[in-house]
Specification:
Elements (H helix, E strand, L loop, with lengths): L10 H12 L2 H13 L6 H26 L3 H8 L4 H32 L8 H9 L14 H19 L2 H27 L4 H9 L9 H14 L6 H7 L8 H33 L3 H4 L4 H13 L5 H35 L3 H16 L7 H44 L6 H29 L6 H23 L14
Helix pairs in contact: 1-8, 1-11, 1-12, 1-15, 2-10, 2-12, 3-4, 3-10, 3-11, 3-12, 3-17, 3-18, 4-5, 5-7, 5-15, 5-16, 5-17, 5-19, 6-14, 7-15, 7-16, 8-12, 8-15, 9-12, 11-15, 12-14, 15-16, 17-18, 17-19
Bound molecules: 4-fluoro-L-phenylalanine (PFF).
4-fluoro-L-phenylalanine binds next to helix 1, helix 2, helix 5, helix 10 and helix 15.
Length: about 500
């Protein structure tokens, strides 16, 4: 790997790895509830508009940037213009926040797989999750000691992430096939199981019946854009570094369409698995579908276990399968968060990945222990909110400005068209220079106003202030990292293969 940049072994490895990065926990628990909270079937309209006006254009931008500059986010931005390197670092700081807590949710899945063998969550699944499993403290001010089962799960997840990455891209090119195909097979089984249950149709009606009146509400549109960004893993440096491992003359535009559509199709499909089971649960409990539907993590760790318990045949098997689904969905997203971070350092200072990777994994694990405490859940929620609401939007906005105006959208478009299987038109420039930044800008301002007016999640003000301090801290850190002199950045562009 020294000197020559590492390469995917084939185009399909790259596509599959990108799909694996995009498809994650978010497709199963986030998309379905955001969809029904924002107009059900009608949400698909803003969702697909967001996909085509922001998701795909930004994916093309990130692929183009990584492919052209042959480097991870900070060095790629430095090559655009020296002073913009911090934008790349900011992306990595945001992804760092995410990779501190994302594996903790996966650790819960590891633990829940062990409980699934005898349906250990019992009948009171909410009580089990909050009282017995997380042993929630009174609030973010009380960390209240570590929950060892979660720490053990976390160690398992980090070790798995390390194992996937340490052998480099050749091994990763193979691993991603399994980490994408296995969850897909499980998902298909879960959908078939769900659809053959009584009451499933009611659940699907609830999922898909359009309520067009919501389309006038700007919050619905913002939710759609937010979901597209999170789901496609944009603005985190992931897609930039993945495309920097592409050999010369690799297509960009078509790959971006394939990855984006595969991801969004999977989200839509996962909704069938979730809502068919919710329909069944509602029928079994003799209540309406909205009454059993929880948003957020409650859907996966409270509602779904309740439904699994009520399944007529081999419920333990489906319990194991469901949490295995989440785990396998999450693993390739997790390592796609580590790779850009590690590459940021190895590209700039020519450090040896053999050392940087284990150090990052060990530090990630140790810092992640904060989220395994009894008060850790609250912090997970706060960090998730700040990273996704502010971090992603800000980085996306900056990316559009730097490429749209500093580098020039038309120049990037020409480059993309030179190597792609089909040409992208002027519409792309309009999206990158106007549509996406305007929407992200509005979204950012609205979020700041809401935060100032209402705080977040009913937490005490000081907890929100900690969030703001972390947010400002990572911006400062990005500038500091930019200002530390790197080893010359002109190498790293290989002759291709
Ligand atoms: N896109 C992933 C999901 O939908 O679950 C989440 C994610 C992956 C976030 C990769 C961040 C990231 F770098």
């Amino acid at each position: 790997m020294n000197g020559q940049r590492a390469r995917w072994t084939s185009r399909s490895s790259f596509i599959i790895a990108s799909i694996g990065a995009a498809i994650g926990l978010g497709n199963v628990w986030r998309f379905p509830y955001i969809c029904y909270e924002n107009g059900g079937g009608a949400f698909l309209i803003p969702y697909f508009v967001a996909l085509f006006t922001a998701g795909i254009p930004l994916m093309i931008l990130e692929y183009g940037l990584g492919r052209k500059m042959q480097a991870g986010a900070p060095t790629a931005f430095a090559k655009v213009r020296k002073g913009t390197e911090w934008v790349g670092w900011l992306a990595l700081m945001v992804v760092m926040l995410i990779f501190l807590y994302y594996p903790v949710i996966m650790a819960w899945c590891v633990d829940y797989i062990t409980y699934a063998f005898n349906l250990g969550w019992g009948t009171d699944t909410a009580g089990f999750f909050e009282r017995d499993f997380l042993q929630l403290s009174g609030g973010p001010g009380m960390l209240g000691g570590i929950r060892w089962p979660i720490v053990i799960g976390l160690a398992v997840v980090w070790f798995a992430v390390y194992l996937c990455l340490f052998k480099g891209l050749k091994a990763l090119s193979k691993i991603v096939f399994y980490t994408v195909i296995i969850p897909w097979i499980i998902l298909v089984i879960m959908v078939i199981r769900g659809l053959t249950l009584p009451g499933a149709i009611e659940g699907l009606k609830f999922y898909l019946t359009p309520n067009f009146s919501v389309l006038g509400d700007p919050r619905v549109w913002l939710a759609a854009y937010g979901q597209i960004f999170f789901s496609l893993s944009l603005a985190m440096g992931t897609m930039i570094v993945y495309s920097s491992y592409l050999p010369r003359k690799s297509d960009i535009a078509n790959n971006a369409f394939i990855v984006s559509l595969a991801n969004c199709g999977t989200s839509f499909f996962a909704g069938f698995a979730v809502f068919s089971i919710l329909g069944y649960l509602a029928q079994a409990m003799g209540v309406s579908v909205p009454e059993v539907t929880q948003s957020g993590l409650g859907l996966a760790f409270i509602t779904y276990p309740t439904a699994i318990r009520l399944l007529p045949l081999v419920p333990a098997f489906f319990g194991i399968l469901f949490f295995l689904l989440l785990l396998t969905l999450g693993i390739d997203s997790a390592f796609s968060q580590i790779e850009p971070f590690v590459a940021g350092f190895t590209d700039k200072w020519k450090l040896n990945k053999k050392w940087v990777l284990p150090i990052v994994c060990i530090c990630g694990f140790l810092i992640g222990i904060v989220f395994t405490t009894r008060g850790g859940y609250y912090w997970l929620d706060i960090v998730d909110y700040f990273a996704n609401t502010f971090g992603l939007t800000l980085v996306g906005l900056l990316e559009c400005i730097v490429i749209g105006y500093v580098y020039k959208a038309s120049k990037m478009r020409e480059y993309v068209n030179e190597v792609s299987e089909f040409r992208i038109g002027i519409w792309w420039d309009i999206c990158i220079k106007i549509v996406t930044p305007v929407i992200l800008g509005i979204s950012f301002i609205l979020s700041v106003v809401t935060l100032i007016k209402e705080g977040y999640g009913g937490y005490p003000t000081w907890a929100t202030i900690v969030g703001v301090v972390i947010a400002i801290g990572i911006v400062i850190l990005s500038f500091v990292l930019m200002s530390i002199r790197g080893k010359t950045v002109t190498t790293g562009v290989s002759k291709g293969d």
